[in-house]
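Work Package 3 (structural annotation) set out to generate three-dimensional models for the target panel prioritized at the project kickoff. During this period the team completed the workflow that converts sequence records into discrete structure tokens, so that structures can be stored uniformly alongside our sequence database. As a representative example, we reproduce one entry of 292 residues exactly as it appears in the project archive.
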Amino acid sequence: MNGSPATPLLSVRGLTKHFTVKNRGPGAAATRLIRAVDEVSFDLAPGETLGLVGESGSGKTTTARCILRALDPTAGEVLFRLPDDRAVDLAKLSDRALKPVRQHVQMVFQDPFSSLNPRMTVGAIVGEPLVIHGLARGAELDARVAEVLRRVGLKPEHRVRYPHAFSGGQRQRIGIARALIMRPSLIVCDEATSALDVSVQAQVLDLLKELQAEYRLTYLFVAHNLDVVRNFCGRVAVMRRGRIVELAPTARIFAAPQHAYTKILLSAVPSPDPDVPMNFQVAEELAKLDAG
């Protein structure tokens, strides 16, 4: 990045995504509007990890997909700063203009099983982004695939195998390699560890931290596991019904949450201290919050 350290890599302003769905049943209106993402705004600095958390249906994954343009936003700006210091609005770019920008913004998906094409070898999967963007072929492509596989803890000779031959943790490393091979500035991790066992989660998170330090990666980390977020993210944005209700440094969120919804979320996280009781009335408290 050529800009100052204070210059955001990503600036999201008023991001909105509405869906119109058909109603069923007699007497109902023909359609209704769902405000999946409603006026979301935040900045993400180079090298930072921002956690995006909330219950299922809060809008966090839809927000991530709008930023990546897997979904077209209804309104708002997604300003992304390129390595040459130009800022582009991802929300406004045409598909043709978006293609060269995609190499700088990559994604690691939630499910390491369904996100890898079972009919492609690992080498073809990891190298596919380079092929699509015309950045490498032949011996150079093979060398770059071998290098990135080695960097994520896999053997270069694994590139001739198919995804079914690997464990869940190894498959997620393949997904990380596929994102990393483009040398992006920003990686969006959409529940990237939620499908893994706890011990494997820790290994993958350690790898992501190492890669961040080495390549100065910036992460938008979508998650529902607050323990993971507490140990991995520098700041946290809490989403509720399509809006960010609280955004603060992670330590402050966990030590002194300000919003009632954040307090309810944190009260449901099991404590390692056996003398701290769990909150089993989360649904009831959320209903009271909605009513109030």
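Residues 206 and 232 are 9 Å apart (CA to CA).
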